[in-house]
Amino acid sequence: MSDRNAVNQCDIGMIGLGTMGRNLLLNMADHGFTVAGYDLDKNKVDSLQKEAQQKNVYGESDLTTFIKLLKKPCAIMLLVPAGAPVDAVINSIVPHLQAGDLIIDGGNSHFTDTDRRARELEKKDIQFLGVGISGGEEGARLGPSMMPGGDRAAYERVRPIFEAVAAKVNGDPCVTYLGKGSAGHYVKMVHNGIEYAIMQLIAESYDLMKHGLGLNDQQLHDVYAKWNEGKLNSYLIEITSHIFSKIDERTHQPLINEIVAVADQTGTGMWTSQSAMELQVPIPSIDLAVAMRDMSVLVKQREQAQKLYPRNIPLLSVDRFKFINELENALFTGMILAYAQGMALLNVASQKYNYQLDLEAVARIWRGGCIIRAKLLEDIRQAFHANKNLINLLLDANLAKKINQGEQNLRQIICQTSLIAVPMPAHMVSLSYLDAYRSVWTPANLIQAQRDYFGAHQYARKDSEGKFHTEWERNLT
Length: 477
Known about the structure:
Blueprint: E1 12-15, H1 19-30, E2 35-38, H2 42-52, E3 57-60, H3 63-68, E4 75-78, H4 84-93, E5 102-105, H5 111-122, E6 127-134, H6 136-142, E7 145-150, H7 152-165, E8 168-169, E9 172-173, H8 183-212, H9 217-227, H10 235-243, H11 268-279, H12 284-297, H13 299-308, H14 320-352, H15 359-365, H16 376-386, H17 397-419, H18 425-437, H19 444-455
Parallel strand pairs: 1-2, 1-4, 2-3, 4-5, 5-6
Antiparallel strand pairs: 6-7, 8-9
Helix pairs in contact: 1-6, 8-11, 8-12, 8-14, 9-10, 11-12, 12-18, 14-17, 14-18, 15-16
């Protein structure tokens, strides 16, 4: 329970004391801020107080008392599941708030919901921020990447807290004001889309080395650990190496082989694909990653298909050391292409929704704390620093050089794996994205002719302005 002497003393309040909310609140307390936590579950409140063991952390299960703990005007952060729960919490606290108070949604809310909530709260003179937070349990406790959007003045109120608790790269906090409205949640959504793509690419490399090279779990650990020392250095490669060395306490065998091969998803990858389609921005690597998670769910169908289409995977007859180096280059190229697609979407969304995103700043705050943090992000930051108007990372000369160095390995890996029936669709679609993006001519003229043929949709000509329609079946030769 709270101390009566703490009334109006807390710098910020947290509603939702699950793993993320509790750890982020403790992080704030570690940096000298006086904080209050609220949850309907008294066990979570007690757990917070027990873990805190600090005088500047207060827990409450009574909403009125919780709000009285906060300095005025108050700042309240929500870390509850996206969707209806966020609306429910906002509706429950608004009657207790005054003009000038601030609500911060730190969950994975859909950006359209964030815009709606901001409009509704503005009518009540209540400030609102939508803040994407990445880093998981460890990040929340030790330093996440934070992506705030909304009213600039509202951000300035909590900026000292956010900068203190965020991850640091060379002393630079991995948080910055991103833009108006739902800018923060949109950036976090695309972050998660890129995350989907990179995870799929890594999973495919695992499949290939396991079935195409016959590597055991210890050997896989060694490969990923070595890769993490080079250009693939990243959080996702690092944890992948750790996963293959984890022994299950029940079976005393590698834990990875006890995990059901069905991938869950929270919806953020799908949201990224949906938004990209609405904005007409091609992001095939992200789309494919979402689709492959859907494919993983079709267990019974795949079992039936395996009987109809038996698959015997022969080991590749290759120099293993050389092949693994080529695969490293292929994976790195695929990762660049995944980031490029995500950043291209952010560029278009920024213009469409008037976010005025600084993509160099986005790359900068992704270098630490977040799930997709990687050594490569410094190259991406430099690309946007050199050209603020860069519409696609593939048009940066430095990254183009890296892609050109890995392209042939990507192509060779795909060719060899297609012959042994090991699926690598994310690698394949990434290469096709590159090939299509650099093709001055595309076969879309045939598509336009077909559309005009069956639907009179018209087409443009090279030699004349305007739109044209042809009676295709007249005078056929």
